[in-house]
Specification:
Elements (H helix, E strand, L loop, with lengths): L3 E4 L5 E5 L2 E6 L3 E2 L17 E2 L2 H7 L5 H14 L9 E5 L5 H13 L6 E4 H9 L5 E6 L4 E9 L2 E10 L4 H20 L7 H21 L1 E8 L2 E8 H7 L1 H14 L7 E5 H4 L4 H4 L7 E5 L3 H6 L15 E2 L1 E3 L4 H4 L3 E4 L2 H4 L6 E4 L2 E4 L5 E4 L7 E3 L12 E6 L2 E6 L5 E3 L2 E2 L3 E4 L4 E4 L4 E6 L2
Parallel strand pairs: 1-6, 6-7, 7-15, 8-13, 13-14, 20-21
Antiparallel strand pairs: 1-2, 2-3, 4-5, 8-9, 9-10, 10-16, 11-12, 14-17, 18-19, 18-28, 20-22, 22-23, 23-26, 24-25, 24-27, 27-28
Length: about 450
C-alpha cells in the first residue's frame, strides 16, 4: 500500500494520497471555535496561534499549551487516515532533529505511527527529476528558507540550508495591508486599520487583489463601513515596492547558496513566483531555470513511491537522499522558464566602475589587485582587507567577459563566491575579498 504523506509546511500543511493532494490549509488554530482560523488572524490575534508547528520543530523546549495546540491541529487533519495506512512526513528546512523527536511523541499521543521523515527539498527535487542541482525555496508563515540539493548519479542529496526570520507570508501580507491602508487614508481620509474587522477584510482580500494585479496590472481595494464604501486603485509597482524587504531576503538566500555563475534549478512555491516585483529581480540568475510548484507537490510525489516500512524497535529515519523519479501525473502543475535571457543577450561589459572612475577593459586581459604586475591592470591601494596582490583577471572570451579568481580570500559576484571562473554581465557587482572592496561592471 502506498503511504499517506503529510507535508509540514506551516504556510500550507498538505496531505497527499496516491499522487493527489487531499487537503491543504495553513497551520493556524483559533481557540474561539471559528471554522476558519486563517480569517481570524487580524480580528482575534491573541486567540489565534500560527507558530505552534514551527515552535515544536525548531525550539528545544516548548510549552504544554503549544504541544496541545499541535496535537489538536494534527489529529484533526489526520482524521482521514485509513486503518492500516502507513504515514510518512515531509519535513521543512527549518526542522531540527530534536523537534522531530518531539513531533513523534505528539503523533504517538493519538496513535499515528510514523514510518519515516523525508526532507522536503530532497523530495521535491527527486519528483521533479531535474538533471542539475537545485535550490529549493521555502516560504513559511513567519520565515523563509532555501536548501541546496545536489543532483548527481541519478540521486538528489540535500547539502545545505539557510533561513531568515525576516520573511514569511504573514509579514508579507501585513506589509501589503499597511500600504493599502496608507493609500486609502490618503485618498479617502478613512483609515481601515483603525478597526480590526476592516483590517481583517483587507487581509482576506489580498489574494484576490494579487490575482487582479497579475492579470491587469492594477487592482481596486474596497471596504465598507455601514452604508459608506471606501476604495482605492493600486498598481503592480506599489505592491512590488511594499514587498521589497521579502524580495531582498529571498534573493540573499539564493545568492548565499549558489556558487557564482552556476546554472542550476531554482524551485519556488507558486505563491512566490507570482509575487509582484520578484519576477524582474530573479532574472539576474542567468542560465538558471525557475520552476514554480504547487503546494503539496513534495507530498504528492512521495505518496507515489514504495517506501520502506518502519520496524518496531528501530529508530525512525530522516531521508535526505532519494533517487530521481519523474512523476508524469504531477508534471502538468509545474511551470518552468529560463532566467536571464534578456540580460545575457545584452551588450557585454566595457568598463569597470571604481571610486567614480570608468576604467576601459579592452580586448587584452586586465588584472586587478594590490600589485597586479601587468601592463593592463587596475592597481588598488593598500589598506583593503582581504585583497590579494593579483586578485582576479578579466578576460575576453569571444563576445563574453570572464572573471578568473586567483585570490586567497575570494571574489564575489552579486554576493556569490566565484569558483575559479565565471561569466559576468553588465550590471554585475564584483567584490574583492572580505570585507574587501566593491566595483561595478557597466557597458558604455
Amino acid at each position: 500500500m502506498k503511504p499517506l504523506v503529510i507535508e509540514l509546511d506551516d504556510r500550507a500543511v498538505c496531505l497527499a494520497r496516491a499522487g493527489a493532494v487531499v487537503s491543504s490549509a495553513p497551520a493556524v488554530v483559533f481557540d474561539g471555535g471559528a471554522p476558519d482560523a486563517w480569517r481570524a488572524l487580524r480580528s482575534h490575534p491573541t486567540a489565534t496561534s500560527s507558530r505552534h508547528l514551527e515552535s515544536v520543530l525548531t525550539q528545544p523546549d516548548v510549552s504544554e499549551k503549544t504541544l496541545a495546540l499541535l496535537t489538536a491541529d494534527l489529529s484533526s487533519r489526520l482524521a482521514i487516515k485509513q486503518a492500516g495506512e502507513r504515514l510518512w512526513i515531509v519535513t521543512p528546512a527549518v526542522a531540527e532533529a530534536r523537534g522531530l523527536g518531539t513531533l513523534l511523541g505528539v503523533m504517538e499521543g493519538f496513535a499515528a505511527e510514523v514510518d519515516g521523515f523525508v526532507d522536503a527539498a530532497t523530495a521535491m527535487t527527486a519528483a521533479l527529476a531535474i538533471e542539475r542541482s537545485a535550490i529549493v525555496l521555502e516560504l513559511g508563515l513567519h520565515h523563509s528558507a532555501a536548501t541546496f540539493v545536489e543532483v548527481s548519479a541519478g540521486m538528489a542529496r540535500r547539502r545545505r540550508s539557510v533561513r531568515t526570520e525576516r520573511g514569511g507570508l504573514i509579514e508579507l501580507y501585513q506589509s501589503w495591508v499597511e500600504f493599502i491602508g496608507a493609500a486609502m487614508v490618503k485618498r479617502t481620509r478613512f483609515d481601515p486599520l483603525h478597526d480590526a474587522q476592516t483590517e481583517q477584510l483587507l487581509f482576506d482580500a489580498v489574494p484576490g487583489l494579487l490575482r487582479d494585479v497579475e492579470s491587469a496590472g492594477a487592482a481596486t481595494a474596497a471596504v465598507s463601513r455601514g452604508a459608506e464604501r471606501f476604495e482605492v486603485e493600486l498598481s503592480r509597482d506599489q505592491f512590488a515596492l511594499a514587498a521589497q524587504p521579502l524580495t531582498r531576503e529571498i534573493l540573499r538566500l539564493i545568492h548565499e547558496l549558489r556558487p557564482a555563475g552556476t546554472a542550476l534549478t531554482i524551485a519556488v512555491p507558486c505563491v512566490v513566483s507570482t509575487m509582484p516585483g520578484l519576477a524582474e529581480e530573479i532574472e539576474q540568475f542567468v542560465d538558471c531555470e525557475l520552476v514554480s510548484v504547487p503546494d503539496g507537490f513534495a507530498a504528492a510525489g512521495l505518496s507515489l513511491l514504495d517506501l520502506p516500512e518502519h520496524s518496531a524497535g528501530q529508530p525512525v529515519h530522516l531521508l535526505r537522499r532519494l533517487a530521481l523519479q519523474a512523476q508524469p501525473p504531477l508534471a502538468e502543475a509545474v511551470a518552468r522558464r529560463r532566467l536571464g535571457g534578456r540580460r545575457a543577450g545584452g551588450p557585454p561589459p566595457t568598463h569597470i566602475l571604481f571610486e567614480g572612475r570608468a576604467i576601459a577593459i579592452g580586448s587584452e586581459a586586465m588584472v586587478v589587485g594590490r600589485a597586479p604586475g601587468s601592463a593592463r591592470s587596475v592597481t588598488l591601494p593598500d589598506g583593503f582587507a582581504g585583497v590579494s596582490r593579483r586578485h582576479c583577471t578579466f578576460v575576453r572570451d569571444g563576445e563574453d567577459l570572464v572573471l578568473l579568481d586567483h585570490s586567497s580570500f575570494g571574489t564575489f559576484v552579486n554576493g556569490e563566491r566565484v569558483a575559479e571562473r565565471v561569466r559576468v554581465y553588465s550590471g554585475d557587482r564584483v567584490k574583492l575579498g572580505e570585507p574587501g572592496v566593491e566595483m561595478a561592471l557597466i557597458s558604455v
